[in-house]
Amino acid sequence: MEIKAAVVREKKAKFKIEGISLDTTLRANEVLVKVVATGLCHTDLTIRDGLIVPFPTPSVLGHEGAGIVEQVGTAVTKVKKGDHVVLGPSSCGECEQCISGHPSYCTNMMQLTFSGRRTDGSCPYHDHSGSDVSGLFFGQSSFANYSLTNERNVVKVRKDVPLEILGPLGCGFQTGAGSVLNLMKAGAGESIVIIGVGSVGLAGLMAAKAAGCTTIVAVDIHDSRLELAKQLGATHTINSKTHKISETIQKEIMPGGLHYALDTTGRNEIITEALNSLRPLGHCVLVIVSTEKLEINGMSLMGKTISFGLEGDSLPDVFIPRLIDLYKGGLFPFDKLIKFYDFEDINKAVEDSEKELPLKQYCECLSDHMDF
Ligand SMILES: [Zn+2]
Ligand SMILES: [Zn+2]
């Protein structure tokens, strides 16, 4: 079938809306989804620019899609035509991590996410000249009006929430919220600092509030973002341009330190500050790491845990519906972080997000959406 996709023709090029063909002779476990909206995440842009992992061009990116099931392969039992779904990351379902309920760390994740082809090597996307177009990015390539995906990528969701806001639950929002609820297991009466309150940090912040944390410190270098953090439940804010994070926490907010720290910057000096803000036995979760060597003063680790979590260590089929229930209950108002763009304006959405969060400084997921 002919679909409309935002194609990356070459490394660092702008997205180009094109008609391309998608082979809809589904394999047994595949699902065809009519995409209603998709989030734009910085991972899309880093891959477009040829950073981190190569993804062969021409290509269709996008990995925060939500839509309606259009067609299912013969072995698919999880969903049927007409179901509302959020598209989550790829995992194999067979390795030890998948079987034990931690598909974010799937052994086969790299191949399933970044090969641009099916596991049998075939390419279901072609342009008008007949050339292969890499698809199945994160198993979904949702920068298109249709997505060919796998049964394991789809999460069935309730129909009484607007589908167009749900896409980022599949990556950015589940990363932030999962870090707090699944990895830290933050609970009532506990304390946390969130460093960097972009959409991932704010999702973590809302999750901390929903979990009953009573001291929630938001840190950023932009006052406007700190203001939003306050509205969403931060009890304290620190502008780290003018105030040292750990000193402010240890002297003015909670002498002895906090229970948890969520770092969304991946920067050495900030991670050290996060660790110094914790009490012994505290847990610091990183959602991004940089290519520079992580250097930590051993003393700042005393009795503490530091971990790098992917996708909030979530089991998407369980966790995404749970986040939607929290949203319906007024406890996870993630819709406040979403801005809509027409699909044709995808390059404008990229421009705006880069203006707000220069790639070099931050490398986290964004909530900017393109509405199809
Ligand atoms: Zn696996
Ligand atoms: Zn992402």
Low-pLDDT residue intervals, each spanning 5 or more residues:
358-367
Mean pLDDT: 93
Tell the overall outline.
globular
Distance between the termini: 18 Å
User: What integer value in Å does the Rg equal?
Assistant: 20 Å
Name of the top-level CATH class of the largest domain? Alpha Beta
Question: Biggest β-sheet: count, sense, barrel?
Answer: 7 strands, mixed
Order of helices and strands: EEEHEEEHHEEEHEHEHEHEHEEHEHE
- Per DSSP, the total helix count is 10
What's the β-strand tally? 17
Supply the number of structural domains.
Answer: 2
Strand content range: 25-35%
Family: Belongs to the zinc-containing alcohol dehydrogenase family.
Keywords: Metal-binding, Oxidoreductase, Zinc
Protein name: Enoyl reductase (ER) domain-containing protein
Pfam families: ADH_N, ADH_zinc_N
Describe this structure in words.
This protein has 372 residues and is α/β, with parallel strands linked by helices. The chain folds into two domains: 2-170 and 338-371, Medium-chain alcohol dehydrogenases, catalytic domain (Quinone Oxidoreductase, Chain A, domain 1); 173-311, NAD(P)-binding Rossmann-like Domain (Rossmann fold, 3-Layer(aba) Sandwich). It contains ten helices and 17 strands. The chain has helices spanning 42-48, 96-99, 109-114, 172-184, 199-211, 223-231, 245-253, 268-276, 316-328, 346-356; strands at 2-8, 15-22, 30-41, 59-60, 65-72, 84-87, 125-126, 146-150, 154-156, 191-195, 215-220, 236-239, 258-263, 278-286, 305-308, 339-342, 365-371. Strands 3, 5, 6, 8, 9, 16 and 17 form a seven-stranded mixed β-sheet that branches. Strands 12-11-10-13-14-15 form a six-stranded parallel β-sheet, with helices on both faces. Helix 5 links the parallel strand 10 (191-195) and strand 11 (215-220). Helix 4 packs across helix 5 (199-211) and helix 7 (245-253) packs parallel to helix 8. It is globular and about 65 Å long. The model is unreliable at 358-367 (pLDDT under 50). Bound molecules: zinc ion (2 copies). One zinc ion (ZN) is lined by residues 91-92, 94-95, 97-98, 106-108.
